[in-house]
Amino acid sequence: MSNYIRAFSQDDIGIIQLDRPEVLNALNREMVDEIVAQLESFDQNNAIRVMIIKGNEKAFAAGADIEEMVHSTPLSLEMVNPFAVWDRISLIKKPIIAVVNGFALGGGFELALHCDLIVAAEDAKFGFPEVKLGVMPGAGGTQFLTKAMGPRKALEFIWLGEPMPAKIAYQFGIVNRLVASELVEEEAMRLAYQLALQPPISLRLIKEAVHAAVDLSLQDGKNLERKNFYIAFASEDQKEGMQAFTEKRPPTFRGM
Ligand code: HXC
Question: A Pfam family in this protein (predicted)?
């Protein structure tokens, strides 16, 4: 039973709707637990091929729940270990798409950055306002943003805590697709359905190799890629894909 999200599927797309509209989907710890547990559940569900996380028209999520954080102490944070659950998102094997309308601030921006792809509205409002609360990003914001924009731009945005126009996020490759707000969901679903037709084993092997490229040396990354390339040849979808090519017909991938 979830209190702060709604989860459902449409064909083979697993959808998580953040559902705390009265506080612009501010993320309390229970809500983050629910999101991650649902991602893991979709990841284990053979009927699901792609996942989507979305908010509502006004907000993807306006950050971590400030009411919950206001009385935190270094020791309470150490004992609660609130970021361990976030690390589990990087263990999800299937593609995750964030659909961003409205605010994606602080922890909300970090949740989108934990997803593989971001589809955003042209007027979406990204940003890290934590500095204005006397703190800083804590769920990977400094790292994700610096890897995407380089240190100078990342420092400018995180130091000033000012909104990042969606167009800038798009130009830096943080956002994959930028569309009018009324078309965001449609575009994300189109992308999800396109991915759902791809061979699922290839998708997960590609996801692992691409994310590894962010941290590994070129040679270590190439070695990992090579192993994953070999593993793909254990799949029936490899046989189907290559056979379909020789028979001049479209392939049907079954995820085996
Ligand atoms: C708790 C929040 C909230 C948040 C909004 N609300 N953001 N509550 N935590 N992060 C609540 C407001 O208190 C208000 O409740 C209701 O949502 C509607 O918000 P308004 O401020 O009335 O809306 P608006 O005037 O449109 O302004 C929108 C806003 C503003 C610009 C997004 O709400 C805002 O600045 N929010 C805080 C954004 C922020 O600082 N995020 C970073 C948090 S720190 P009431 O009861 O008054 O109706 C963080 C650290 C991450 O994320 C660490 C890792 C997880």
Answer: ECH_1
> How far is CA 129 from its chain centroid?
20
Spatial distance between the Cα atoms of 127 and 110, rounded to a whole number of angstroms? 10
pLDDT at 1 over 90: no
Number of residues assigned to the chain: 256
Range of the domain at 230: 200-246
CA torsion angle 217 222 225 231 (round to 10): -130
pLDDT, one tens digit per residue, over 160-205 is: 999 999 999 999 999 999 999 999 999 999 999 999 999 999 999 9
If asked whether residues 116 and 232 sit together in one domain, one would say no
Pocket test for ligand 1, best of 19, 28, 56, 66 (most atoms within 8 A of CB): 66
CATH of the domain at 226: 1.10.12
Mutate to test the pocket of ligand 1, among 23, 32, 69 (most ligand atoms within 8 A of CB): 23
Instruction: Reply yes or no on whether the pLDDT at 55 is more than 90.
Output: yes
Q: Is 64 considered catalytic here?
A: yes
Which residues line ligand 1 at a C-beta cut-off of 6 Å? 23-24, 26, 62-67, 103, 105-107, 110, 129-130, 133, 137-139
